[in-house]
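Quarterly update from the structural biology core.
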Amino acid sequence: MNVAERRRLLEALETLAYREAENNPKPVTETFLPLKVHRLALRPEIVLVRGGRGAGKSALFRLLASGRSTGFLRRFFGDERLPDARWVDAFSQSKRHPSETALDEWATEASKDDLRIFWLAHLVLRLNEEGIGAMQPPAQLLAAWQERRSDPRFFMPFARPAVGELTAALDGLDALLGRDERLVFATYDHLDRLGQFQPVLRERYVAALLALWLSFANRYQHLRAKVFLRDDILDAGEASFADASKLRARSVSIEWDVESLYRVGVRHMAAAGEGLRDWVRKVGGGLELQDDAEFGWMPGDMAERTQRAFAERLAGEVMGTGSNKGYTYRWIPNRIQDAQRRIVPRSMLSILGFAARSAVLRPLGKGNRLIRPSDLYAALEGTSKERVREISEEYPAVRRLENLRGLHVMLEKKQVVERVARPVEEASGGIPTNGEAVFDELLRLGVVKVRTDGRVDVPDIYRSGFGIKRRGGVGRPT
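Predicted structure, tokenized:
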């Protein structure tokens, strides 16, 4: 492989660092990796699909909301038990729904009942728009919504006196679906965009939505919900209305093991272009890449032997020297996991993409490897910064680690507690100055870890982004 050929592959690989579900130019069916947990999430009794930022909730939402047939979903997920169903985008960040800004402005004056009526009305209007059943929303409400759907102040006055009619419309739809032995799933995503600068508004919206669907749980058998939600938002919603905890038994959390992370990396590489597909095919170690005209290129199983072959062809067999020396295929997941050994696929894609960005500046001149070990090391900082940005949006208390910048782990717990008690300029209000409380929250999130000797460690996926140093490095290549 010459420099020009390698540069083309690296430029394709670099795009993986920006593969969020919302901005991925590739069709979701070419990059989504179906897992067992997804099949569980699609069961009718599951209402909440939980997961942190980057876990793949929005990718699953996009797939379900794309209008694919039940037959397609059964083939894609390998589950013939999936029921005949229609999947309707009941809320997301799209023009089908009111804007987040308009909703936030209206919610400052809205009561709990108003918020619940909003979700009820919007559900009926969206089902009608999608041609589900023979529903007839109240004429004045429908006309107002069609004229200015982005302005709840305009159409909600017509919804309040029509609660009985709206409920009757859903009752009729559920009866019709029962006769036809079909299901309709109302799907909700991007709830974290509500109340972006006023979290209390988001909590109120989520609590109202969960309360509505909890009331529907026994009333409707064929009209169901799938709410894609971060765990922290669910926690806040539960605090706003006690019965929300009942929905946890009807939830599933999307989590990833190391094999699945390697597979999702390969799947995205295969979708990025013919050149990277050819490179993947030559990995060896039992790696199989199946061409499916309907689903794109799907990698087979990637046991440890296959992971090792992939990483070796990517960057070489080992990272580091001396006591820091270790196998590359282990180094990669170890560096992007949190203190509870959790990894999200976006971090896997990021470290591959950022490594390619580093390598394209000085590509190798010969051989089949795409990058050097030093490129992976350089990619860790960018990957960490991206993960810090993501999780800080969910949990602002994480920004308190800024107070550890320049320090070397391991650290004494007393020192860490003392420092995380201090507010930082970019942190939002509401975070306590009680260092023990903040530390306990960071521990719960997997952002810090207490070792057996009582000292505190910070996983590399967060440490690098905050400029926290590690004595002896992280297996840095020479």
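Residues 395-478 form a domain with the Arc Repressor Mutant, subunit A fold (CATH 1.10.10).
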